[in-house]
Amino acid sequence: MRRKAPLLAIFLALVRTGSTTFGGMWAATQQLEKDLVLRRSWLSAEQLRTSIVMATLIPAPRFLAFGGLVGFRMGGWLGSLAAITGLVLPASLLVLAGVRLISPELLGGPLAPLTRVIGIAVVGLLFGNAYHQVRGKRDDRRRQAIGRLLSAAIFTAIVVGMPLIGAAFGGFVLGALLLREQGGARGHAKGQ
Amino acid sequence: MDAVSVVEIFSVMVLGALLSFGGGSGQIPVIQGRWVEPGLLAPELFSFALAITYLAPGPRAGFIAGIGYYLAGVPGVAAAMLGLIVPTCLGAGAVSFALGRMERIVALVQPSSGYVIGALIAAAAWGTAVPMRLARVEVAAVGLIAAVVGWRNPDPVWVVMGAIAVGSGWAWIA
């Protein structure tokens, strides 16, 4: 497999992602689009979405699996290894520093307000990113309406207890039936 | 605390990574069952390593570095990280190979991918918010942040930096 980017560039790009994103892969979707699609042109917007979806199918933590897919696309097996290592390195080093330097009593006591406010910010980030995804600004009104209904149905299914993977699979099957490209209708191809 | 071998740490982390299929935190129940319940890892240390990841950027799976350290020092960190990275790398490679043969299926799901992903993100937000039992003012803060993020698309690091500033001020006053 021909390498599309140097291993060091893959590693450093994912170190940057791993050190500037908070709240996991879902909270980072907009930032990933800015960095990997618009800035580096490593992926198209559609390839990014496909990689995000495919990451949920890999038996591994989702964000790392996403990094592995991007790394593999850019540099094969070694690229995947460089990407996963780069992505998890900042968090691991910070956790390591934390367990060595901070007393466990601090986090549940004096630092409790800090962790709570960060938690609130992460929830806000997640909802904001969800809105960004379902806007479907390149779709016509009918497709937007169908897409948003589909989103609401999947969200409800997960909240009432359906396994995430089953809800996502069902959503894709319904989406393929309801949002199929017809007669040059434009897809949900933001950034293309 | 009894010593745990690096081979065991590696094996348990591989198992945890494999159980994360579909986006769950597979390491958490495995670590609880294998080390916390038998008394090899104090529950407060386990909770502490997990809690720190909320202050750290990047994947939450980074907490396993702390678990590896508590169990076996620096070699434990290396074993835990390898146990996380190796199965993820193999899975990503295998799915990448399969993707090349799934172009028709990928083309079918692409028109709905934004809507499906949006729903999954919203469900993740809900799942994070519910155990926090947010007060009304906190719900309003979530709504405000969500509106700003959805509308202006700021870099998330600024949102978190703002939260750190507010949270630090609150912690200092309290």
String of helices and strands of chain A: HHHHHHHHH
Report the sheet with the most strands of chain B, covering strand number, pairing sense and barrel closure: none
What's the gyration radius of chain B in Å? 20 Å
The share of residues in helices of chain B is over 70%
Q: Helical region count of chain B? A: 7
Give a short account of the largest sheet of chain A.
Answer: none
What structural class results from the helix and strand content of chain B? mainly alpha
Number of strands of chain A: 0
| H-E order of chain B | HHHHHHH
Estimate the mean pLDDT confidence of chain B.
84
| DSSP helical segment count of chain A | 9
Specify the oligomeric state.
heterodimer
- Contiguous low-pLDDT stretches of chain A (5 residues minimum) are 183-192
Shape of chain A: globular
Residue share in helix of chain A: over 70%
Gyration radius of chain A, to the nearest Å?
A: 19 Å
**Strand runs of chain B, count:** 0
- Label the overall shape of chain B: flat
| Low-pLDDT segments, ≥5 res of chain B | none
Beta content of chain A comes to: under 5%
Short summary:
The complex is a heterodimer of chains A (192) and B (174). With 192 residues, chain A is mainly α.
Structure description:
- The complex is a heterodimer of chains A (192) and B (174).
- Chain A has nine helices and no strands.
- Chain A has 192 residues and is mainly alpha-helical.
- The mean pLDDT of chain B is 84.
- With 174 residues, chain B is mainly α.
- Chain B has two domains: 96 residues, no CATH class; 39 residues.
- Classes of the chains: A mainly alpha (192), B mainly alpha (174).
- Chains A and B meet through helix 1, helix 2, helix 3, helix 4 and helix 5 of A and helix 3, helix 4, helix 5, helix 6 and helix 7 of B.
